[in-house]
Amino acid sequence: MPIKTILLHLANDGHPTARIAVAADLSRRFSAFVEALYVASPVSMPAAVTGRGASYAYIAEATVIAHEKAEQAEKEVRAALKDCLHSWSVVEGDHVHLLAQRAAFADLAIVSQARVDGMDDVVLLNVPERLPLETSCPTLVLPYEHDTSLPLGQNILIAWKNTREANRAVRNALPFLQTAGKVTLLAPQDEPGVDDLVASLQRHGVTLERARNVPVAGDVGETILGCARDTGADLLVMGAYGHSRLREMVLGGATRSVLENLHLPVLLSH
User: Fold this and answer.
1) Domain ranges of the chain
2) In terms of CB atoms within 10 Å, which end of the chain has fewer, N or C?
């Protein structure tokens, strides 16, 4: 499916510029409409805040501050997307719930990696971890300190095994794969279906290079990110593994490892 609607997540999280720049670039590349959704509710909670009353007070204060900063964020969005079709809205509530509602009508959602370094005193809401598990829309997760001067989608690494999640990720990534200069496939040795995947992508005009010496044991997430560095990849495509039960999110080990140590954008599908 072509990318014609991009859902852009914005918040008072200190790092919206990269997301806005990437959304603008992809909007021009794919002639896509950008829905900028600014969620004024806080994206994190200080660990020291305890008790229902204290939590409510913190949320109320953080929400007021976010609304005050929304005007500046809107100016930045309008300037970056001045030659693109787009919309702007400010909402309050659970970030993932609100994004999942809108993602049902989008072809791509853009979020940022949750910042983990130096944040021991903060409880994060884990938007990039939760969103791919709650919507069929592919989620593009940018590293927290993403360098927008670097290309995105010219050298792609596909981390694949023959599962529904991985196959959905490849299908969702087709608009990127078809315009990439290089695509590398990373799969376990003797994984069934590799030849079928290669043939299918070739019919879509995508030629794959095969990564070698892929171990099937150990830290799979570390192996994936190591291969991304070795190949110089600027985009990683992979399935997101896990489930959400009674609002308790459980991630697969490889998904968690990649998201915690991310150094390049990753396109996730569940």
Assistant:
1) 5-142, 155-269
2) N
SS3 content of the chain, % helix, strand, coil (to 5): 40, 25, 40
Q: How far apart are CA 198 and CA 107, in angstroms?
A: 24
Torsion sign, CA atoms 119, 124, 127, 128 = positive
pLDDT digits (tens, 9 = 90+) for 128-172: 778 888 888 999 999 988 999 999 999 999 999 999 999 999 999
3-state secondary structure 192-214: CCHHHHHHHHHHCCCCCEECCCC
Q: Percent of the chain scored above 90 by pLDDT?
A: 63
* pLDDT at residue 214, as a whole number: 60
Q: Which residues pair with 185 in a beta bridge?
A: 158, 210
In sequence order, what are the residues at sequence separation of 6 or more whose Cβ sits closer than 8 angstroms to the Cβ of residue 134? 96, 100, 244
Measured from the Cβ of residue 154, the count of other Cβ atoms closer than 10 Å reads 16
d(CA 210, CA 203): 17
Q: What per-residue confidence (pLDDT) applies to 157?
A: 97
Query: Taking a C-beta distance cutoff of 8 angstroms, is the pair 125, 204 a contact?
Result: no
Spatial separation of the C-alpha atoms in residues 191 and 210, rounded to whole Å: 12
Closest CA to 159 of 222, 249, 244: 222
Level-2 CATH architecture, domain 5-142: 3-Layer(aba) Sandwich (3.40)
Average pLDDT over residues 204-219: 77
Domains 5-142 and 155-269 belong to one CATH topology: yes
User: Which two three-digit tokens encode residue 143?
Assistant: 């590293």
**Other C-beta atoms within 10 Å of 90: how many?**
16
What are the structure tokens assigned to 152, written together? 């995105």
Judging by DSSP bridges, how do beta strands 235-239 and 209-210 pair with one another? unpaired
CA–CA separation, 66 vs 268, rounded Å?
Answer: 28
Q: Return the structure tokens found at 211.
A: 């990564």
